[in-house]
Every structure is written in structure tokens, then in C-alpha cells.
Amino acid sequence: MTLQSMTGFARYSGTHQNGEVVTHFTWEVRSVNGKGLDVRLRLPQGFEALEHNIRGLVAKSFTRGNMQVSLNVEQNSEGREVLLNHALIEKLLNASQELQTRFGVAPLTLDGLFALRGVLDQPQDTVSEEDQAALKAGVMDGLGSLLQQLQEARELEGAALKRIFEKHVEEIATLTEKARHDPARGVEAIKARLSAQVALLLDASQALDKDKLHAEAAYLATKADIQEELDRLDTHVASARKLLQHGGAIGRKLDFLSQEFNREANTLCAKSNAATITAIGLELKAAVDQFREQIQNLE
User: Where is the Endoribonuclease YicC-like N-terminal domain (predicted)?
Assistant: First the structure.
């Protein structure tokens, strides 16, 4: 299964003909990041009854994303008679003249007059229920094509995201191995640090017990061991690779893994008793932050 980004755009235009009446319709959908699936619709008058079916069709294809779906419908008006509302025009002209006389308002222009609702009237063709149902069925077929285009667009971006995720996961795996084989974790290096710390304390105060200091230092060294964190990082890396290979709607699962990555990186830095390990831990945190940032775009 492929990955999908939550970001995408698609447009679909179609035509439905009923005798001499030709209806043109255009679907548009914009999708951005979202915690769940949120669909907002903008439908023309007379198509509100399609809302339930539209939401159901979207939910079959997508599980996450904030989507704005709009439909525009226009009928071919060639050959139709245009009627003027003479009574309304007379009232508007009288009102315009009065405003011009009393307040110096600019006179009403022809363009402005025709732009007012109700001045021009274009009789609509009578459409039967069967014809209206056929039109709506055609419009819904167009929605199916629109959502297919959106899915393809989101999958295309999802493929690019997958390569980015794989790169980040490999970086985390590499840093984990780097920490595992860091010379500072070697037995001789640990002994040298402990001896130096004990010697420093003994020089500062002869009253301190040398054996107790060695025991305490050894205990602290054990607490500072990061083997468990490294093992857990290995496990999370394997899980991330498996999810990316399987694909599908894995955004939430990868987000959980990113939190686990971050937890281990923080613990590694906190337990570190060597500058080199701390530096690796900080690099891990940066890689995990980049990984998690990209997850916000994934379904």
C-alpha cells in the first residue's frame, strides 16, 4: 500500500445534457493537514440533498485531512429570452435620482443597474424530477473522478514523503550504532574516568573512604549505562521500517513512534557521562524532530 500526504488539490469539470439544456458543472477539492477527517462543503442551491452522499464518498477514500469541497453548476443560456423588470428598474432610477439630488451621489450606471439582483430575469427551463435525478447522478459520478484525482495527487506527494522518512529513520539507526560503538562506552575508558574522578575527590578531602568512593562511582556508572535505550531505539527503527514498507494510513502510528524516539534520545542525553555520547544524543533529537515534523503531513 502507498502512503498519502494530507495535502492536495484537484478539479474536475463535466457536462450533462438534457435535450437542448446543457449543464456544466465543476468540482474542486482542497485538502490540508488535519487530526481527523473534516469535510466542508459549498454546494449551489438545489444540490443540498447531496451532502450526505458526498460525505460518505469522501470518507470511503480518505481517513484524515481538512477538506474543502465545492461544486459550481451553470446551465447554457444561449437562445433564451432575457426579460427586464421594468417596475424594479423605475424604482431604482427614481431612488438614484433622489440620492443624487439630496446628497450628490454619482448617478446609477447601466453596468451597475444590470448587476443588481432582479433587474434581469432569464426564465429557467422546466426540469422533471427524472431529469434532475439524472443530473445529480452525473454530478456524483464527477465527484468520484475528482476524488480519484485527489488520491493520486496525495499518493504522489506521499511517495516523496516516504523517501524522506526512510532517510530520517536511517539517520536515527546510524546515530544509534555510532553511540553503541563510541569509545567512551569502552571498559577501559569507563575505568579511566572513574579512577580520575575518585582521585580528584580524594585529593580534595583525605577523610573520604576510597573503597566507598569506588563503589559509588561504579554504581553511578551502571546508572549511566545507555544499553537499554540503544536496544529500544533499535526496536523502534525496525517498527518504523516495517510501517513504511507496509504503507497505508500510518501517520498516527509513526507519530507515536516519533514520541518514543524522542523519549529515548532525551534519556540518552540525560544519562550520558561523556561529551561524545551527549553530542550523539543531540544529533538524535534533531533527526527525530525533523522526522516528527514531516509526519504532520502524512495520512
Answer: 3-162
The whole-angstrom separation of Cα 147 and Cα 289 is 32
Backbone angles phi, psi at 249, to 5 degrees: -85, 85
Is residue 42 classed as helix, strand or coil in its secondary structure? strand
Of residues 47, 18, 8, the one with CA closest to residue 136 = 47
Within 10 A of 210 (CB to CB), how many other CB atoms are there? 12
Cβ proximity of 73 and 23 under 8 Å: yes
Domain positions in the chain are 8-77+128-155, 83-121, 156-295
The three cell numbers of residue 111 are: 453596468
Burial (Cβ within 10 Å: 0-12, 13-18, ≥19) of residue 206 = exposed
Sheet with strand 65-75: strands edge to edge: 8-18, 21-32, 65-75, 37-42
> What are the cell numbers at 201?
575527590
Kindly report the number of other CB atoms within 10 A of residue 70's CB atom: 15
**pLDDT tens digits for 77-103?**
555 566 788 888 888 888 888 888 888
Phi first, then psi: give them for residue 209, nearest 5 degrees.
Answer: -85, 120
